What we know:
Layout: H1 9-16, E1 24-29, E2 37-43, E3 46-52, H2 62-74, E4 92-94, E5 97-103, H3 115-131, H4 145-156, H5 159-162, H6 166-180, E6 187-190, E7 199-202, E8 205-209, E9 216-219, H7 220-231, H8 241-254, H9 259-286, H10 298-309, H11 321-324
Antiparallel strand pairs: 1-2, 2-3, 3-5, 4-5, 6-9, 7-8
Adenosine-5'-diphosphate binds near residues 30, 33, 49, 198 and 210.
Amino acid sequence: MAVYTDVNEDQLRAFLAEYDVGTLLSYKGIAEGVENSNFLLRTSGGTYILTLYEKRVNRDDLPFFIGLMDHLALKGLSCPLPIERRGGGHLGELAGRPAAMVSFLDGAWLRKPQVQHCREVGRALAEMHNAGHDFAIRRKNGLTVTDWRPLWEGSRERADEVQPGLRDEIDEELAALEQNWPSGLPEGVIHADLFPDNVFFIEDRLSGLIDFYFACNDFFAYDVAICLNAWCFEADGAFNHTKGMALIDGYNTVRPLQPAEAGALPLLARGAALRFFLTRLHDWLTTPEGALVVKKDPIEYLRKLRFHRQVASGSEYGLRAKDLIS
Ligand SMILES: Nc1ncnc2c1ncn2[C@@H]1O[C@H](COP(=O)(O)OP(=O)(O)O)[C@@H](O)[C@H]1O
Ligand SMILES: N[C@@H](CCOP(=O)(O)O)C(=O)O
């Protein structure tokens, strides 16, 4: 679910009066998503998504998220365009929450992405990286290697309840990643959560990217690693080399990975798997039974992590020899 805060019609009409979007025709809560409350609005001016930012989103980060969507959309990337208020700015307040409206994107996310979709995602990711290069605001990644230990400390004592031996395995993994995490790779604005549910397609054509609420400044190749994890494993847990190759080829057509980035990919993919494992484990252990949110399985990401740990070379992800040699 993702309607944590209810909105009544009077509140909504008062909120909309601050925008040049016409009058309200209908609205309904959107069940998907986990972080914020989202509503689909129809007005005499068009169709919009209204988001009320919930507790896990830091208010100070909102100018970055909203400014970034505005920047990317104006650069021609297909992503939601924040709607400006009559008095300027994009952020308002509704039902006691910070709130903003963005344009509605057509399309739907794919439950079973195929090879050609992975290629499209790779290309769109690189386009986003290029388009973000002159975005003026910076945001540190709040879930990078230095943040994993405090997150782990919150779950560590109960980890063996989820799988026996997990505590020792993650202790070792975390120490290895902290010691070997790369530095000096090309960086810029990354999406940091470009999972299939955040990418829309119309038939086989990618129609847009959404959900920029984990976006931050970090290594571009880390974003590629997040996508390899999210797009290129099959339901049985096997890594699909053909999908990996397509995703990397699609990326390279727009922004060729440098050899240092390609060489770091196995480690970055391990780190990316650990990052999602840790947030899922935290939610798994803390979300009360009966809460209206779908808990995501941490073990899926533990399996991905184990796969990356035994990867000897980037060629196992589909990198070609020329990508790996400087
Ligand atoms: N601009 C948009 N156009 C169309 N649908 C959208 C748009 N933004 C969000 N949605 C819908 O709302 C759902 C939740 O949005 P998302 O940003 O992923 O929420 P959360 O940040 O809470 O995870 C999406 O799965 C999609 O169905
Ligand atoms: N993609 C993350 C969870 C974040 O969910 P989103 O709805 O904000 O994309 C995961 O799969 O763990």
